[in-house]
Amino acid sequence: MEFTKLGLIDPILLALAEQGYTNPTPIQQQAIPIVLQQKDLLGCAQTGTGKTAAFAIPILQLLFTQKQHTQGIKVLILTPTRELAIQINESFEAYGKYTKISHAVIFGGVSQVPQVSTLKRGVDVLIATPGRLLDLINQGYISLRHLQIFVLDEADRMLDMGFIHDVKRVITKLPERRQTLFFSATMPPEIQNWQMYYYTIHQM
C-alpha cells in the first residue's frame, strides 16, 4: 500500500513525497485511517516503526480540514523527554510544511521565556514534557479548554520514568470530550487497564 491510498490530502502527500515517503509502515497503515475517523486509539509498536508519523499525519489533516478554525491549543502531545519532544516537533514541521498548522515544543531545563512568547502568539499543536507543561499551566500561560486531541507518546517510558502522577494531573485538566491516542512500545499493566476503552493496534 502507498500513502496515496490512505485518503490523505495533497498538501500532506506533497510533504511526504519530499521526505521520500511512499509506503506506510504497518502501524501507519493501520493507525492513520482510525485517527482520521476521530476514534480513540492505543497503538503498540516497537521503536523505529514510525509511530510519530502514525499520529502526526492524520492530526495535521484533521486540523487542516476543519471548517471552523477556533483559537487556542487544539492538540496536546505529551512525551517523556526533551529529545523526543524536539523530534516530534521536527516531524510536524516536515509533514505539515504546506498546511500552515502552527506547532510549538516546550520542555524543562531551559528558560521558559522564549516558550511563553511562542505560546502567547498562539499555536494549534503543543508538544510538551510533563513538568514544564504543568508549570506553565499553573502559571496561567496555557489553557487546554479548546483541546480536541490528546496524544500520550512513549506511554510505557512515561510510566517507567515515574511520570504517572504528572500524566494523571494533566488528564484532569483536559476537556472530557476529546480524541485520545496512546502510543507505546510495550503494553505495561497500567496501559492494559485502559486498553478496553480504545481501538487497539498491536504490532510487534
Short characterization:
It contains nine helices and seven strands, in the order ααβαβαβαβαβααβαβ. The longest helix is centred in the first third of the chain and has 14 residues, at 51-64.
Description:
The protein has 204 residues and is an alpha/beta fold. It has nine helices and seven strands. The protein has helices at 10-18, 26-36, 51-64, 82-95, 113-121, 130-138, 155-160, 164-172, 189-194; strands at residues 41-45, 75-78, 103-106, 125-128, 149-152, 179-184, 199-203. β3 (103-106), α5 (113-121) and β4 (125-128) form a beta-alpha-beta unit. α2 (26-36) runs parallel beside α3 and α6 packs parallel to α8. The longest helix is centred in the N-terminal third of the chain and has 14 residues, at 51-64. The radius of gyration is 16 Å and the shape is globular. The two termini are 19 Å apart.
List keywords for this structure.
seven-stranded parallel beta sheet, 16% strand, globular, 204 residues, 7 strands, alpha/beta, 9 helices
Structural class computed from helices and strand pairing: alpha/beta
Strand content: 15-25%
Shape: globular
Order of helices and strands: HHEHEHEHEHEHHEHE
Helix content: 40-55%
Low-confidence stretches: none
SSE order and pairing:
Blueprint: H1 10-18, H2 26-36, E1 41-45, H3 51-64, E2 75-78, H4 82-95, E3 103-106, H5 113-121, E4 125-128, H6 130-138, E5 149-152, H7 155-160, H8 164-172, E6 179-184, H9 189-194, E7 199-203
Parallel strand pairs: 1-6, 1-7, 2-4, 2-5, 3-4, 5-6
Helix pairs in contact: 2-3, 3-4, 6-8
